[in-house]
Amino acid sequence: MGKILTRLQDMFWGTTQRKVVTSVTVGLLLASILVRFIFPVPAPHVALSGEPILSTGPQWLTNSMLTTFIVDILLIVLALLTRFGMKEVPSGLQNAMEAIVEGMYGLAESVAGKNAPKFFPWVMTIFLLVIVSNWTGLIPGVGSIGFLHPVESHASSEVNGGEHQEEQPAEGGDSHGFRWDGQLAMANGSIILSTPAEVTAAPAQAEAEEHGKFVPLFRAPSADLNLTFALAISTMVMVQIWGVRFLGGTYFRKFWNFSGPNRFMQGINGFVGILELMSEFSRILAFGFRLFGNIFAGEIVLATMAFLMAYLLPVPFYALELFVGFVQALVFMMLALVFFQMSTIGHSHEEHH
């Protein structure tokens, strides 16, 4: 036990430089704890979908859409800089991009074989878009810098809409009923409501009406189902296109095939075709929800850790999210590549093997 304590003391307090680093680290840790109790931090902002940036502007211009535009511009600029900065002896950016492209192409070639040159531009574009979109959520300020949109109070909205409802007594007994959002509650045969809507309003709603609703300026595109399902649908549409390009009209035999030596086998083949058609739609759901779920859950974990303690605690989770963002982009790319390759294999070829 004494040896362990000696080693720990030497590790954190052995030299002057280590003493300074340890002292600064402990000081910042204590300061973050004190600040947490002295200055209350607002709860993390959590929204399932992208939110419009401008309260009076177009509803399609959401924070996730704005970040998607920025990611697209960054990728285009990166491609142009790499293309027009190419030299015979690569260095810097060209060297890094060539290493990434060559490594990914070797991986694609191991899956698609001779079809790799056709599929690689599509899957590599998906990989770059997804990984940059995943990592944008880790940039400081994304999800925390935004605007306060004015929120119309509940009472004024009812009056302005011409649907203001006053308290109305219930019939029979001493009980009284109150209209609550156009509904009445009933208990023991009497129409009652414990408190009016104005009294039972949620604290969050009251705070939103007082200060406004917070809307982040930026949001990770992968944490929005609109992007993940758009990528999933586009990928599966390309699967059908590649299947038709390679196999022609016979590609659709796997969805509609009632051939067989007898009626039993014809029924089995027809049922398998229906399952194949259902699997195409299930792949869209799996693509969309897998990417969205992992990135959205990571955002919530990081926001929660930063809410509990802003110093040191979120660091390991940042490293984990960097790894998860890369893995999810690689998984999306490899699944798309596998589906592309599977679409080029005819039904008769499968039966032969």
How would you explain this protein's 3D organization?
The chain has 353 residues and is mostly helical. It folds into two domains: 63-149 and 216-352, no CATH class; 154-211, no CATH class. It has helices spanning 2-13, 16-38, 63-84, 93-112, 116-136, 154-160, 203-211, 225-247, 263-308, 314-343, 347-352; strands at residues 146-149, 185-187, 190-192, 213-216. The strands form two sheets. It has a two-stranded antiparallel ribbon with strand order 1-4. β2 and β3 form a beta hairpin. The longest helix is centred in the C-terminal third of the chain and has 46 residues, at 263-308. The chain is globular and about 80 Å long. The chain starts with a helix and ends with a helix.
Task: Record keyword descriptors for this entry.
single chain, 353 residues, mainly alpha, 2 domains, two-stranded antiparallel ribbon, 11 helices, globular
Q: Encode the helix/strand succession as letters.
A: HHHHHEHEEHEHHHH
Instruction: Give the percentage of residues in beta strands.
Output: under 5%
**What's the helix count?**
11
Largest sheet: 2 strands, antiparallel
Number of strands: 4
Helicity, in percent?
Answer: 55-70%
How many separate structural domains?
2
Terminus-to-terminus distance:
64 Å
Structural class: mainly alpha
- In the sheet with the most strands, the strands line up as 1-4
Rg to the nearest angstrom?
29 Å
Mean pLDDT: 79
Low-confidence segments: 154-159, 161-182, 196-202, 349-353
Shape: globular
